[in-house]
Amino acid sequence: MDVRRRKLKTENDDIFEVDTKPRIKKGHPGKRYFVVVVLLGILFLGYIAIAYDLKPVHLGSKAIDTLAFSFNLQKPFYVVVIDAGSTGSRALAFSFHESILGGNLVLDDELYTDIKPGVSAYAEKPKDAAKSLTVLLDKVKGVIPQVEWQHTPLSMKATAGLRLLPGHKAQEILQECRKMFEDSGFQISKNSISIMDGTDEGIFSWFTVNFLLERFATHNPGNTVAALDLGGGSTQVTFSPDSTQEKKLDGHVYSVNIFNHNMSVYTHSYLGMGLMAARKEILTHGMNLDNLNLKDAIEVRSECVNPIVSTEWNYGGFNYLVKGPVNGTHKLVKTQNFAGGEVDRPIVNFSECLKIIEKYVGRIKNKPEGLKDHEIYAFSYYFDRATEVGLVDPFFGGIIQTSAFLKQAMDVCDYPNTDQPFICLDLTFIYILLRDGFGLEPTTKLYLYKKINGHELSWALGAAFNIIQNGL
Ligand SMILES: *[C@@H]1O[C@H](CO)[C@@H](O)[C@H](O)[C@H]1NC(C)=O
Ligand SMILES: *[C@@H]1O[C@H](CO)[C@@H](O)[C@H](O)[C@H]1NC(C)=O
Ligand SMILES: *[C@@H]1O[C@H](CO)[C@@H](O)[C@H](O)[C@H]1NC(C)=O
User: Is residue 36 part of a domain?
Assistant: First the structure.
């Protein structure tokens, strides 16, 4: 989790094996992994503090802390993380305090606030990208006392949305954001406004989930859970393999020091396999947009969209008019009324749509072997789509089998619904990604949650700890 190791590497996001840079060399015995050592010693204290915090038996110590708080003996401190994602920007303001009992670090609260669209939507107007973030900054300022601003580190990490933009456009956006944050009164540094690579994103998310679930207590890889994060532009698979699994994995394994123990962590970020990036490729069949007039919506027709749909969709600064196929598939359905007649219902031809999606997901060659042996926590878009079709409760989350995504996909594809024009495509993509991309079985369980113990599942908490450890 040390940002400095980043300089040792080249690209981390790859779905095409030919793009893989030489960090993993096949046929080099003993050099199969790019081993990176990361120090997180201080976090050990943090972990103990949180573990105490959650266990009733330790309520006594918490009560003393709380008392100290009310007498103003303890000062809270804050870390602000801005997640500039491809579909939206989110601000998380974490507050911690150092416990009077042994100086442990205790995570108290977090403010979560978000806006849409993401900064990458302002590719042509970088100043507006920065302006869009001031709403978030104002909310953050509302929860952190002004006297603390100058001591509060602020970090903005952009993810796949900016990774997918041409380099100079991404840099212009970052430049404008940096200017805005320099005037904010918060502590920033040279590196605090940047594009985060997929490896950090994966490791930070994995850290957050396992930390909140208290899975680091034994440092046994078998006790940790796998983290599946489905963003807009990219998707990450991260878990700690045991030594036999590690042998089967072709690279992407890092040695990460968690609470003074080295753990092997596999993380792979698949650029272009985020839900929105995949949707765009599936809808457009990889159409080249370079020479198109930006003012007009680009009309695309897709087998994965119901024939009655005609809807506008914005992604990556382009505006699409999305329609179903010209001669769409219909299905005769018996009506419920007394006449017993039949209606001609327009549907998505599921097998046709499936072929397109299987072809796209088939680009993933490097499967995460051993993933299905872990408990798998899936969040972000996995969670959102599952709740939208009633697979899990939006407040409590839940556990499903991956085949539940397939069943729901087939149901929704068979029904015209202009309110959710992409739900058929999205659910089918998610299922095929899990099955073909990651090698999961229909019966593999997925734990779908948005929050654990009141804290958002995202890479931001991991990133905040990294700042506390290594500075901005
Ligand atoms: C972690 O691994 C590095 C080498 O990869 C080693 O130098 C270090 O001592 C190890 N730390 C622990 C706590 O085992
Ligand atoms: C749609 O069907 C009509 C009539 O069967 C046919 O003439 C036309 O070529 C078809 N269009 C496409 C795009 O398949
Ligand atoms: C879907 O499309 C295929 C190939 O065009 C066709 O053979 C099949 O009958 C279609 N399915 C339905 C339900 O119409």
Answer: yes
